[in-house]
Amino acid sequence: MPVFKTILETKKQRIKYNGSKCGLIPTMGSLHKGHLSLIKKSLKRDDDIWVSIFINPTQFNCEKDLKKYPKNLDEDLEKIKSISKKINVFLPAESEIYPKKIESSKFNMNNLNNIFEGVDRPGHFEGVLTVVSKLFKIINPDNAYFGEKDFQQLCIIKNWQKHNNIPVNIIASPTIREKNGLAMSSRNCLLSKSIRNEAGFIFKSLSECKKICRNGNEIKEKLLEDFNKHLAFKLNYVACIDTNSFLEINEFRKFKESRLLISASVEGVRLIDNIALNN
Ligand code: AMP
């Protein structure tokens, strides 16, 4: 399977396939079935498929979090190879992506970077857009695939693409879950077995909220009640949003696209999840 470590090699390779549909799946590695679902989606639509594996330092606002981020390169390459041997892997060193200084560029995100995840993780979305914009310039894909699990990230990338006329289709893909409902995440392996099992309550709770609650206040009450039964878990925020404006709403109606977003911390690991309320 072709693995490229430099921008130069990568660009040369891309030129060879000029004219064929290119799909990019940006990842930070420690691949799980959520990542693989994005790769499989690209396989159905694209001819020249690129998976990037790069733990992007600028999107971590905490050094400790960056240091303990799981790394499983050999397994990652095996997993990609088992899907198809013709998938290209872009595996740059930090100095390749940040040759001068490890810092984010500035972006106007219409304040989407200052709410929810952005409150507890200042600079996170600037880091995400910095690396995504660099990857887009290097690979020049037609399609780029992102998971709905990181819903705020997905919306920020979509908005940035739209407002800056970036010629890449942003393709969203549904959240893949563990058997107990916990959204798959590379960080889940940092949880103890018992907490990982217990964490299944979060998605159960979101699904029940969707079924029985009539407005945002009822949802918040129900989630607080559920979290009170799982004291190891700290609820960071819960919000019902209008998917288009990303503004918090209390009344969600069938004809409006709305989502319930949640973030919780346990054993020093931040978990996020979300569910569509209108379908
Ligand atoms: P990461 O490696 O965490 O940066 O994730 C790379 C991409 O995979 C992002 O677009 C994520 O939203 C997506 N992703 C992560 N977890 C899941 C999941 N459980 N289901 C679907 N996509 C996911």
Could you give a short description of this structure?
The protein is 38% helix and 19% strand.
Attribute tags:
3-stranded antiparallel sheet; 279 residues; alpha/beta; 9 strands; globular; Rossmann fold; Pantoate--beta-alanine Ligase, Chain: A,domain 2; binds adenosine monophosphate; 2 domains; 6-stranded parallel sheet
Proportion of beta-strand residues: 15-25%
Count of runs of 4 or more consecutive helical residues:
11
Report the CATH topology name of the largest domain.
Rossmann fold
Uncertain stretches: none
Order of strands across the main sheet? 1-4-3-2-5-6
In one word, what is the shape?
globular
Count of distinct strands: 9
Q: Can you tell me the CATH class of the largest domain?
A: Alpha Beta
- The secondary-structure class comes to alpha/beta
Radius of gyration: 19 Å
Mean pLDDT: 96
CATH superfamily of the largest domain: HUPs
Considering DSSP H and I runs of 4 or more, what fraction of the residues is helical?
25-40%
Largest beta-sheet characterization: 6 strands, parallel
- Counting structural domains, the number is 2
Question: How would you describe what is shown here?
Answer:
The chain is α/β, with parallel strands linked by helices and 279 residues long. The protein has 2 domains: 3-173, Rossmann fold (3-Layer(aba) Sandwich), CATH 3.40.50; 186-276, 2-Layer Sandwich (Pantoate--beta-alanine Ligase, Chain: A,domain 2), CATH 3.30.1300.10. The chain contains 11 helices and 9 strands. It has a 6-stranded parallel sheet with strand order 1-4-3-2-5-6, sandwiched between helices. Helix 2 links the parallel strand 2 (22-27) and strand 3. Helix 7 (124-139) packs across helix 8. The radius of gyration is 19 Å and the shape is globular. Bound molecules: adenosine monophosphate (AMP). Adenosine monophosphate is lined by residues 27-28, 34-35, 37-38, 146-147, 149-150, 173, 175-176, 183-186.
